[in-house]
Design goal:
Keywords: Oxidoreductase. GO terms for molecular function: oxidoreductase activity. By secondary structure, the chain is an alpha/beta fold. It has one domain: NAD(P)-binding Rossmann-like Domain (Rossmann fold, 3-Layer(aba) Sandwich), CATH 3.40.50.720. It has seven helices and seven strands; from the N terminus they run E-H-E-H-E-H-E-H-E-H-E-H-H-E. Helix 1 links the parallel strand 1 and strand 2.
């Protein structure tokens, strides 16, 4: 059983909130009493999630758009603070898989698209989250990297490049604000049961799972549990880490 957190009165932003890891984290935050600002490009799914959270007695706002756009990040932070009074936590999760092919077959357009969402999207949201958190003198941010931020796999150059980049952003930002009451960390999920995995060839997935010693795929709720822990006072001395949540993959 996952620990229960009481985040009553606190406010969080979750990007990529409409499905998968973001949706699980958004629901976990809301169930802990957090008011959530949900960001994703899928407005219909965002509406559904807001209805689900508010129908259960939680607090939620939504903003649809492209996370690589700096104005979206600025607006999300401003609206969260205007409505709820602060910004205490953030999970910068939005990401796409992009092309799955050898690097020599990737296109510039495909690379730029993956970079815009996976790396620039984290950078732009973290920038505006930190502007607010520095005013408050407190806050916790978790960026979603990946197992692909820790290792290389064939046919995934663009994706892995961006996820390695997220770890670099996380470490540098953590050092920027470590003395200001703000903690920045990253998580590195392994193979998780999410819609993103639907785009991977089943035989390739089976080969991948052979390297995940726990012997099964992870669940989005298991990633959400790690996110909430990193945002909680239970991890108050943890900052600048890239935490594998991968069923033992990198323990080889």
């Amino acid at each position: 059983m996952n620990p229960k957190y009481d985040f009553s009165g606190q406010v969080a932003i979750v990007t990529g909130a409409a499905s998968g890891l973001g949706r699980a984290a958004a629901k976990a935050f809301a169930e802990s009493g957090t008011a959530v600002m949900l960001v994703d490009r899928d407005q219909e799914k965002l509406n559904s999630l807001v209805d689900e959270i508010t129908g259960a007695g939680g607090k939620a706002l939504m903003l649809a758009g492209d996370v690589s756009g700096e104005q979206l990040a600025k607006t999300a932070v401003e609206q969260a603070v205007t409505e709820y009074g602060s910004l205490d936590m953030a999970y910068n999760n939005a990401g796409i898989l992009g092309p799955m092919c050898p690097l020599v077959e990737e296109t510039g357009e495909g690379y730029d698209e993956v970079n815009a969402v996976n790396l620039r999207g984290v950078w732009t949201f973290m920038k505006h989250e930190l502007i607010q958190m520095k005013k408050q003198g407190s806050g916790a941010i978790v960026n979603c990297s990946s197992l692909g931020g820790l290792v290389g796999l064939p046919g995934r150059a663009a994706y892995h490049a961006t996820k390695h980049g997220v770890i670099g952003l996380t470490k540098s930002a953590a050092l920027d604000v470590a003395a200001q009451g703000i903690r920045v960390n990253a998580i590195c999920p392994g193979c998780i049961e999410t819609p993103m995995g639907d785009g991977i060839d089943p035989s390739a997935m089976q080969e991948f799972l052979k390297q995940q010693p726990i012997g099964r795929m992870g669940k989005p709720e298991e990633i959400a549990a790690a996110v909430l822990w990193l945002c909680s006072s239970a991890s108050s001395f943890v900052l600048g880490v890239a935490l594998p949540v991968d069923g033992g993959f990198v323990a080889h």
